[in-house]
Predict the structure.
Amino acid sequence: MFKNLQILKFLDGGNITIDELQSFLERQAFSPCQKFELESIGWVMPISSNEKLVHQVNDCLFFSFKKQERLLPSKVIKERLDEKVLEIELNQSRKVRLREKRVLKDDIIHELTPQAFTTCSTINAYIYPKKGWLVIDTPSIKKAEELVSFLRHTFGTLPVAPFKFNNSISTVLTELVEENREDLYFNMLDACVMLDDNGSKATCQQQEMLSSEIKTHIKAGKRVQRLKLEYDKSIQFSVDDTFAIKQIKFVGLIDEQIKEVDAEDEYQRFLADNTIMIH
């Protein structure tokens, strides 16, 4: 299940079938770093026990992006470079200039790359063609942009953009808190982050949003940048001024449904979890 949502909207409607998406992703399927590669990126199976790169749950097309990087600590490179520079200066009785140091550094990186350990990260996403959405499971805008950039490379073009609103998200969140504008479905919880024009920040945890302290911060000119909410007594999450939704937690009846799922294998669990999530 997704724990975070970065949501983009297709400017051309985002109409794509599962077979079309599968075909595109197969062209850029992930393969591990080669001997002298520092990183490798590509599309991988969302379900390790199933060879498909795309899985459809209801009307949503799920897929996964993988990045493998070799770990070359800058400290290790610097130590090797310093040793090499010292060796040359002692043996040849001359100073090593900046240009030569750059060449030496490149040689050291090339030498160390095959020996370096690798680390991998995976980001899950789905396309919702009926709504024209691209939804990415990451709290990081930078990582979301990396996935979008590679998806654009895979497709050849990718006309997507963040949602646009009449008012800024920060204004809406501030009004929610200031005016206690809860409704039948949304409830404010006990955490928020506020910021003023001078950069003064107030982080409030386990605090009633209607408290005098919160009101004092708003009167002093602070605006809500992030707010913890609950939807329909079933989902808790934080939303910030970029419309990034983070720290998703299912509660109440939805949480009970998740716990009651009796899936025999990874594929069945994937289908059950994501069916509940997008319901």
Notes: Residues 85 and 97 are 9 Å apart (CA to CA). The two ends are 12 Å apart (CA to CA). The chain is about 35% helix and 30% strand.
